[in-house]
Design a protein that fits this description.
Oligomer: heterodimer
Largest sheet of chain A: 7 strands, mixed
Mean pLDDT of chain B: 90
Distance between the termini of chain B: 37 Å
Shape of chain A: globular
Mean pLDDT of chain A: 92
Largest interface: A-B, 31 and 26 residues
Strand content of chain A: over 45%
Number of strands of chain A: 11
Order of helices and strands of chain B: EEEEEEEEE
Number of helices of chain B: 0
Number of strands of chain B: 9
Chain lengths: 114, 112
């Protein structure tokens, strides 16, 4: 199992550009999450999904969009990038209802908006 | 999910036990206590979890008070590699959607 895979690992964007951060998991987890972490700060929840076709907002959803068309994939879309979106983005997944409920994280995607 | 409160930072000498506290006074009966740690800027790593009994694994021990309003993560023999930010969260194991919000955690510095 590869676990949770995020791409790209690093990206530099210009203000106003758009991009998609990819996240895929091969553990058949039903719940998936996107977090952002600013330097020296904790994790803030952007969006989450409880299954294919179902998504909901977290603490800081503005400027982002998500979709969950399959169990495996949970891409995060940034529209009109702004310097305030410079951060490290983490995708995570877990299975609610089975197993330990452990949350598995990807290695992160470092985004800089200039 | 119930909110948690942790001290922002702690120090521990290498080889000594590190005891990291967490308050979760609004925890519900079906919510578990989970601990994660984040080393540098890597993705957080699961450590341990429990409901009401004390738990131990190869990484740590978790002590939960009888009223479940607080818990302590114990690293029995801290090493320099345990220097990290430790997060305590509470969440239901089953049932409806869990937003899984993280607090700011405790930054543990292990020193020689």
């Amino acid at each position: 199992n590869a676990g949770v895979t995020q791409t790209p690992k690093f990206r530099i964007l210009k203000i106003g550009q758009s991009m998609t951060l990819q996240c895929t998991q091969d553990m058949n987890h039903n719940y998936m999450y996107w977090y952002r972490q600013d330097p020296g700060m904790g994790l803030k929840l952007i969006y989450y999904s409880v299954g294919a076709g179902i998504t909901d907002k977290g603490e800081v959803p503005n400027g982002y969009n998500v979709s969950r068309s399959t169990t495996e994939d949970f891409p995060l879309r940034l529209e009109l990038a702004a310097p305030s979106q410079t951060s490290v983005y983490f995708c995570a997944s877990t299975h609610v209802g089975l197993g330990t409920g452990e949350l598995f994280f990807g290695e992160g995607s470092r985004l800089t908006v200039l | 999910d119930a909110k948690t409160t942790q001290p922002p930072s702690m120090d521990c000498a290498e080889g000594r036990a590190a005891n990291l506290p967490c308050n979760h006074s609004t925890i519900s009966g079906n919510e578990y206590v989970y601990w994660y740690r984040q080393i540098h800027s890597q993705g957080p790593q699961y450590i341990i979890h429990g409901l009401k009994n004390n738990e131990t694994n190869e990484m740590a021990s978790l002590i939960i008070t009888e009223d479940r309003k607080s818990s302590t993560l114990i690293l029995p023999h801290a090493t320099l590699r345990d220097t990290a930010v430790y997060y305590c969260i509470v969440r239901a194991h089953t049932g409806t959607a869990s937003k899984l919000t993280f607090g700011t955690g405790t930054r543990l510095q292990v020193t020689l």
